[in-house]
């Protein structure tokens, strides 16, 4: 398995920027704001002579309280998993009491550690690093994660002291055989709690406050005794655009929408106690437009009064009727009720979204649908739908050929989609249809007569003239 390198340091020293530099991605949110990163973020290092796993962590303070205590637990887990620690400090700020306390704490662990002085592009690197010798961690490496200065040499030095493979679980989230499952929903509906329940550990920070999750976190996951592997994606909660004032939250929304597009299956988490809101319908519409297989999980269902349960069912029927193709599970992420069925549903809808559709079966269903309910007339002419075949997968894509297909109304398109979905049992995935009209090869062309045809035409004209006399 790949060796693991964890990035450790105070808030706002550039850990996420270095993470993006090492992975050559923009997976981690970056802003000039302390405490932006809260959960552990994993990525495959692509800068260097060989691959490795790099872990971005939240900043460690001296007196954590509230959510910071939960963040520190995430950092401690990253330290426990790591084969090498990369301790980042800020050259612009200099050596602080927090750096001294953290260095003393890391020294006690006895793990391989490298000190990196970030933001060293502002002056002479030797002068900037001199202040950090007092940490007692050896010769500091001066780098600039933003500019890339010294980063390649630093990671090569770290890799020299790491074995190519180590014992443990492969943390690669980029495995194409993994089913990527994005968990989305409004803020504080229980997305991180649900993922922690699926994992069986406190992998993500959960706090009774909206906006706890700010970034999209990719978590490799395997079920005991099962061959299928997954990548769970925790996302930030989406609110109405008019209510978003924090610029960081605006970036979080973008990361969530990108996570939906990267996923194979989306779990839409709803809050039964808060009811079904318009924002849930907006988010469901985006998932539908992206063509992703979908599972709806109504969370916090346990202990709900019968009147409130009936109200939620009515709201779901009224506002999310267009998601009638998706399976619905009523769960409690906190207590685990109903959560065990979600991954079975993921396997089912993923298989449906990637199924190969038989052309004879598609044509049989098309013929049956047209006979039962023929297409409407257009300018006195009947629309003819001749044959169908599969055009793509995830979502299933069906191409129907015929004439005047550009005039097929939306109501008839929905009718065909429902007939195909019922006939093929495509449960849990959207279905798309495209119509194509065959071109007339003789349209706009004049029929050029041969000399023999011209002579015959003249004889016919003379014969007609004689008969008229």
Automatic annotation (TrEMBL):
Keywords: GTP-binding, Nucleotide-binding, Repeat, Ribosome biogenesis
Binding site residues for GTP 2: 185-192, 234-238, 299-302
GO BP field: ribosome biogenesis
Gene Ontology terms for molecular function: GTP binding; ribosome binding
Pfam family, one: KH_dom-like
PROSITE patterns in alphabetical order: G_ENGA
Keyword GTP-binding: yes
Residues annotated for GTP 1 binding in this entry: 9-16, 56-60, 118-121
Ranges for domain EngA-type G: 3-166, 179-354
Family, as annotated: Belongs to the TRAFAC class TrmE-Era-EngA-EngB-Septin-like GTPase superfamily. EngA (Der) GTPase family.
HAMAP family: GTPase_Der
NCBIfam families, alphabetized: GTPase_EngA, small_GTP
SUBUNIT field: Associates with the 50S ribosomal subunit.
Functional summary from the UniProt entry: GTPase that plays an essential role in the late steps of ribosome biogenesis.
This protein's name: GTPase Der
Species of the source: Caldichromatium japonicum
